[in-house]
Design a protein that fits this description.
Shape: globular
Strand order of the largest sheet: 1-3-2
Mean pLDDT: 92
Radius of gyration: 12 Å
Strand content: 15-25%
Low-confidence stretches: none
Order of helices and strands: HHEEEHHHH
Helix content: 40-55%
Structural class: alpha+beta
Number of helices: 6
């Protein structure tokens, strides 16, 4: 996952055909029952389509991979910062 993210999270999700299934938000305004929310940090949440998450192991693996490589300092700005993810590789 890190190698895909070294080009930014948008590129990684587009490459894996998960754009629109996995999204990142800065706060949860209203909970949608069709979504699952994972808190990556105080200012960043991952929002995932519940039906697709429950149905496909691939989506679960990608979500858990993102959680594993994210630190509690991640925010919406550095998610698309290539340098941030390249530093994580080394």
């Amino acid at each position: 996952m890190l190698f895909y993210m070294s080009k930014g999270i948008k590129y990684a999700l587009d490459y894996l055909n998960l754009d629109g299934i996995i999204e990142f938000i800065d706060k949860i305004e209203t909970k949608d029952d069709s979504k699952i929310y994972f808190q990556l940090s105080n200012s960043c949440y991952m929002q995932v389509d519940r039906e697709i998450f429950d149905k496909y192991t691939f989506v679960k693996s990608v979500v858990m991979g993102i959680i594993h490589i994210s630190s509690n300092r991640v925010n919406l700005t550095n998610l698309n910062d290539k340098a941030y993810w390249i530093k994580k590789i080394s």
